[in-house]
Amino acid sequence: MNTTTSPLRTNRMLLSVAIDIALTLLALFLATELRLLLPFGKDLNEPFAQVNGFVYVLAGAIWLAVFSQFGLYTRRWTNFRAEWGTLTLAVLAALLILAGGLYLTFRQVSRLQFFYFGVIDLWLLTLARAARDIWRSRAADHDAWRILIAGSGQAGRSLAAQLAAQRPLGVQLVGFLDDDAAAQGQTIDGPRVLGALGHAAEVIRSERVSEIVLALPHEAYDRMLSIIMELEQLPVQVSLVPDVLDLAWFLTRVDDLNGVPLLRLRESPLNGPARAIKRVMDIVIAGAALVVALPIMAIVAVAVKLDSPGPAIIRQKRIGENGLPFEMLKFRTMVDVGGQRAEVRGKRQEAGDEKGEEEQENLQSPISNLPPLHKRPDDPRVTRVGRVLRRYSIDELPQLLNVLRGEMSLVGPRPELPWLVECYEPWQRRRFAVPPGMTGWWQIHGRSDRPMHQNVEDDLYYIRNYSLWLDIVILLRTVPVVLSGRGAY
Question: Structure pTM?
Answer without folding.
Answer: 0.55
